[in-house]
Amino acid sequence: MEPPVPTDDDRDRRRAALYVAPFLAIGLANLVLLLGWGLDPLWGFAILPPILAVSAIAWVAFSHGFDRQPQRLGDRRN
User: Fold this and answer.
1) What's the rounded Cα separation, in Å, for the pair 26 and 65?
2) Are 37 and 6 in contact (CB under 8 A)?
């Protein structure tokens, strides 16, 4: 049995995860820091969903290639 050949989707997902991971890590580190400073743990539940939501939106955006410009058929600029 041959190993599966990575498709463009697999590479795009991996690239998206690599782009989003540092921002997710910074957000979670800030949350841990705030909780370590004595913030009420209930605030952790208020802060965590926006961190996860923005990371998920960024992952979807990068995996679908918002950062790449579409090629136009009639575009002659080089």
Assistant:
1) 23
2) no
Cα dihedral value 69, 70, 76, 78, nearest 10: 30
Mapping DSSP to helix (H, G, I), strand (E, B) and coil, where does residue 59 land?
helix
Q: Output the pTM of the full model.
A: 0.71
CA distance between the termini of the chain: 44
Confidence of residue 78 (pLDDT cuts 50, 70, 90): low
**Region at 69 (left for phi over 0; alpha for psi -120 to 50; beta for the rest):** beta
Q: How many C-beta atoms lie closer than 10 Å to residue 21's C-beta?
A: 12
Which residue from 71, 70, 32 is spatially nearest to 48, judged by alpha carbons? Answer: 32
pLDDT tens digits for 37-67? 988 889 888 999 999 999 999 999 988 887 6
